[in-house]
Amino acid sequence: MAKEGPNWDGLLKWSIANSDGTAPTSNLSEEDRKWFMEAMQAQTIDVVKRMKEITLVMQTPEEVLKDQGVTASDIEDILEELQEHVESIDMANDLHSIGGLVPLLGYLKNSNANIRAKAADVVTTIVQNNPRSQQLVMEANGFEPLIYNFSSDPDVTVRTKALGAISSLIRHNKPGITAFRLANGYAALKDALTSENVRFQRKALNLIHYLLHENNSDCNIVNELGFPRMFMHLASSEDSDVREAALRSLLELARITKDRSEEDSEKMKQLLQERISNISLMSAEDLGVVREERQLVDSLWTSCFNEPSSLREKGLLVLPGEDNPPPDVASKYFESPLRSSTVNPSSNNDSKKGKRETPLLLGSGPSSADSNNPVSSNREADARSRTDAR
Questions:
Q1: Per-residue confidence at 259, pLDDT binned at 50, 70, 90?
Q2: Which of 206, 305, 321, 354 has its Cβ near the most Cβ atoms within 10 Å?
Q3: Per-residue pLDDT, 45
Q4: Is the dihedral of CA 336, 76, 107, 363 positive or negative?
Q5: The pTM is what?
């Protein structure tokens, strides 16, 4: 399907010619200004038009799509394209007004696991650091299929994607957090920690840490369900990100709960001594990779035993060159292509297919109107990195 749009080649040439740095800046002529604004507006209109076309496909009954030769892979493709469009907060909020949010949430219940997973991915992008879309998804009963998929779906990828969407949906969203508690979300998190899928484990650990950080009273739930023992087990995981996430949750608990039994203190000491021993045997290159783990181990030791860990004596807490990290200049001027990140992991990039045009539907479809301790803070930056969650 050929797409009409602005003359991007001409726009690129014009931009290069007017910003190559070889000539002083000058005011645009009225003709150039008009041409530039029309080109920008045409692209905006084209995106909205395209989102309406995608909405029409999502609103069309599955049987009709099959009759038109539309496959599950085709649906995945349009969802992937939609995700790119809603990276803009304005476009994410517009999706509801053009009737696209409800059918998107309907795809969370699709019989195809890949479609359920991709729909959750799109929801993640829509709601991350976006209070308006968080509210719209909650009002459209989008939380219910997400919590069901997270806790009960037979496909671990679907469960992981649903958890990512929930994490973004309830972040800085008190009604969402309340709904999560009432839906027995902590029990589902406990189950996720027993999974053999490290990405699922990481997402669960990151959400637990966030919830503890936001509400210390959740510590009681976590202790009653036996999370500390699971954190200690995962703190020895072969996956460095899982280890860090588990240590981060243990540190949060240690700061909240000061009264520990002698048995618990001894288990904590054994765990940290084991981590210190493993860190001490690492190569210089590996030590650089586990910088945060080193800091977490030392912070946890200090919090539990009121003294610095032996990592300081061994010179392993702060390595040469780590005292003054290079200034982060680029981030002041450039943003991630995704608002978050969560989400979207590099594993997704590896599996991306070449984009296909959305199948042209024959006949009329439904109307679109139907619708010194750098570790102490909450490090998990699901905050609009539109990525992980790693």
A1: confident
A2: 206
A3: 60
A4: positive
A5: 0.75
Q: Which residue has the tokens 């594993």?
A: 347
Retrieve residue 105's tokens. Answer: 């949430």
User: Distance (Å, rounded) from C-alpha 332 to C-alpha 325?
Assistant: 16
Domain assignments of the chain as residue spans, ordered by start: 47-183+342-370+385-390
Estimate to the nearest angstrom the gap between the alpha carbon of 274 and the chain centroid.
31
CB burial readout 121-156, b (16+ within 10 A) else e = bbbbbbbbbbeebbebbbebebbebbbebbbebeeb
Assign 284 to helix, strand or coil. helix
DSSP state at residue 290 = T
Higher local confidence (pLDDT), 134 or 6: 134
Residue with tokens 């800046």: 25
Q: How far apart are the first and last CA of the chain?
A: 35
Q: Which CATH number fits domain 47-183+342-370+385-390: 2.40.30.10, 3.20.20.140, 3.30.420.270, 1.25.10.10?
A: 1.25.10.10
Tokens describing residue 250:
């243990």
Residue 22 in tokens: 């070889």
Instruction: Note the pLDDT tens digit of each residue in 152-164.
Output: 999 999 999 999 9
CA distance 389 to 166: 11
* Secondary structure (DSSP) of 7-26: -HHHHHHHHHHHSSSSS---
- Token pair, residue 95, equals 């999706």
Rounded CA-CA distance 17/32 in Å is: 12
